[in-house]
Specification:
single chain; four-stranded antiparallel β-sheet; globular
Amino acid sequence: FAALATATEEEVVRAWEGLGYYNRARNLHRLAQIVAALPAPPRTADGWLALPGVGPYTAAAIASIACNVPVAVVDGNVVRVLSRLTADERLFKNNGAAVKALHPLAQALVNPVFPGDHNQAMMELGATVCYRQSPLCTLCPVVRQCLAARLGNPGQFPRFAPRITEKIFLRRLWLVHEGRLLLHQRDASAKRLAGMFELPLADDLVPLLLDDQILARKRRAISHQQIEETIFRATWTPSLAARIESAAALHWVPLEQLSALTLSGPHRKWTSELLARLPL
């Protein structure tokens, strides 16, 4: 905690680069600064819940495993085990709703003497035996207590409402001029990827882009979103330069300084790929 607390936020986020969910890194940094100033780290779930970025799952895991506090850990694996044990017919909106609904049962089952071992066993049971598909019921130590196994349909639990997938299409620019790459820096208060650099969006800078200018088309998924990003080659012109100069979030970055910047994981990868195969 002490070493993390004395680091700068920039150092922490740079070390986290490529892992996604960058607010976790920032929260962990703030948490370390708070804990480093305490006489000792918290020893209860409520004590950990009061710290930045710590939710019920993390708080219960730390309190039960490290401090032997009898509090239940509920993740997707535990949801699967409990919903099958009880053949729970409820239709959950998402995993978060299922966690909340099944937490009272999980808490009632916690071994008060060995809560850490119990929680780890529940999570491992879901991860290594009670698979989402084709669960290994013949190897399950609690198959005789499992109502879903008795009914012959464990794979039907837990029940979730159909998930709506959002498709997002983005157009991005690749513009290298005089040994510099044009990048966009997200606002420091942005909900996601705050302060990080990425290839700029094209629509506000270059209204007309042709298919023969496409350098790459990248697809990725984040939660319920399917994102397709097309990277277009742009050519420097005085009019484009004027638009760039008027945009405070756009920056010309010397190519030799790219490694010192914090880019989001996909943009770091794409930038490296394009620099390796394109003439500068």
